[in-house]
Protein: SRPBCC family protein
Amino acid sequence: MKLESPKISVSKSPQEVFEFLSDVKNFEALMPENISKFEVLDTDKFLFALKGMPEIILKKKEAIAPNKIVLGAAGGKLDFSLIGNIAETGNDSSEVQLEFTGDFNPMMAMMIKGPISKFIETLATSIPEAI
Structure:
C-alpha cells in the first residue's frame, strides 16, 4: 500500500526543512489534535499514540540531505515507512510531500487507508507553521 500527502509549499530552504524533519522531537508539533501520547525515546526514535489507536514507534532509518528522510516502524507487528520527500522550488522555498508505504493484507489496508491518509495529510500541512 502506498499513500501520498498533498505537496505542501514551505518558505524555507530544503536544508532547513530537512534539518527540522531530521530532529524527531519536532514531530510532536506536527501531530494532529487527537494525539494522546508523544515521547522521544532516543535521538532517532519516538513513540506516539492517537486516541483509540495503538502506540506506534517510529525510528529514523535513512537521511539523504537535503531531499529525503525515511522513518520506519521500530518493532510491532506492522512494517511500514514514512518518507519525507523535499524538493527545492526556488530561493528559500521548497515543497514537501510525505509518503506512507506498507505491506498489509487487503482487509487491514482497507481499514487503515482513510485514517492513515488523513494522518499524513495533517503532518504535511502542519510543516509550514511548525518550522
